[in-house]
């Protein structure tokens, strides 16, 4: 049950402790009837990691010690990817590579160093890996220095098939509170996290991390779809008690607040929520306040919304989310699976919300789905489509010959639309093709064609961006590995950040897997002369 202090105004208790996580996860498992199944093989993992080497910024390091702090034991069978212990090294390498840039303001250089170190470490692993997406290191094609790009192969080229979602360096905003008095809902420039007391990180800095998710791509469900990070992910993390009430990312604020009060036996003023402090969220914050919440109890950090699952299971947050990067949202959603923090989501236009700024309203469908031409192009690469503007997707499939081939191939799967035949659709396509290009680009399909095309896209495995989804809808194999490695003390987790000695680094990482085990892993790495 969430922690509610009587009479408290400003939220307290951050960061959550290991014991708080244990209690929260155990309460969830008890309610669901889950029991430990097997013991996690920590000794085996330690043996695999000891002596492994990786390179960061031209320096070679060797793992010299590994320590584990179990938070929750497995409640399902251990998977092959979860047992690939060496997969944690790329995340650790990325954090170590970015660490020297702390306090310099050089966030671009830090991101590049983290990404290159992650790539190098992946290249040493016996696997056929593929980057399916990532922020900072996973934009479409190689349009950033040192970027890990979508569909880039990683690993040795031999061995098990593994898909990756990565964010080599999450949280690059500076450590200063937001200027709420002037109505500014955005972070500052640079990367200068100098605050050392997490209790003073209100409402700004959350802590820098390296994030990695690995998914078995050779299993029954075939890994994960490609994901572009050029859109926003509008998301909502909810504790399991509210999930069973049928709430999701589009549920009205009044309904969420009412259900939370009923489930937890508190007043609206005692509830605690969080979302990034951005101008596009201002109207949503207002609806939370109108529903009875206190503005002081809505935490508005500059970044770090990928870690919301942990304070939710700890009882420090009632709900959290709203718009942010696709990759940290999906990776953060994976972390919520073993702890009962469910994430529902919907893709949203980055361009339209940026255009509207302080007038942006997530409750307005025209703002959420005002996709630009460029966004429609990026959506096609990830097999995403807009069911309300089907022509905008089709026009980006390529020449007419490719469009016809796509439709013909899909039609063989016996797509059926009552009252509208495949022949009717071909007639409309022929009319479109007969017009000159300038007229053709404004061609509008009939309602019958749109319904027919929607079914074709869905039959082919495409995702409708207007659909409210759950993480399981993204075809994740149960065999997954999640790792979050902290560079600095983290506001949302017990991770204390990295420590540097004369010739060594100590990193702390949160690990979860498909077996739903949860533990903190400390790794000592020494410089190799």
UniProtKB/TrEMBL annotation:
It is an enzyme of class 3 (hydrolase). GO terms for biological process: fructose 1,6-bisphosphate metabolic process; gluconeogenesis; glycerol metabolic process. Pfam families: FBPase_glpX (PF03320). InterPro entries: FBPase_class-2/SBPase. One of its GO terms (cellular component) is cytosol. Belongs to the FBPase class 2 family. This is fructose-bisphosphatase. It comes from Candidatus Saganbacteria bacterium CG08_land_8_20_14_0_20_45_16.
